[in-house]
Amino acid sequence: MINVPIKRLPHAADLQLPIYHTEDAAGFDLMAASAADADIVLQPGGRALIPTGFAIALPRGYEAQVRPRSGLALHSGVTVLNSPGTIDADYRGEIGVILINLGSHPFVIKRGARIAQLVVSPVERVALVESDGLEGSARGAGGFGSTGRGTEK
Fold first, then answer.
1. What is the pLDDT of residues 52-75, one digit of tens each?
2. 9-122 architecture in CATH?
3. pTM value?
4. How far apart are CA 104 and CA 24, in angstroms?
5. Between 20 and 30 A from 56 (CA), which of 4, 22, 146, 147?
């Protein structure tokens, strides 16, 4: 386990720190830190940057990914637009969640609502080495869908 410092910003003074909701959960739930007196309404096709009221200091060699909550996607059509959103180890600003409503009805985001999850993972650095050719593979240079289709139609 790694320790990650978290800073509560003034507009999240009354909100719970992000937590794992089950013993084996991969991500912390992030909550909306919108104004207490103003719900955010996402119209169908609408998007908004939702504040969480927290900033973190990841250690070098780690990243955090902002991922959708499956229940919001399934039941309301609301998801994280830039999924997964990446938080680099050197970012110290507020974590924000870009939500989009792909559903057919307006979606109301209330203060404290669980809107996304945050998964912290190690990052492997690579060195890109320019080459005149690449080793062959069974797929080769085939593009999207080049491995064929299964039984789905």
1. 999 999 999 999 999 999 999 999
2. Distorted Sandwich (2.70)
3. 0.87
4. 33
5. 22
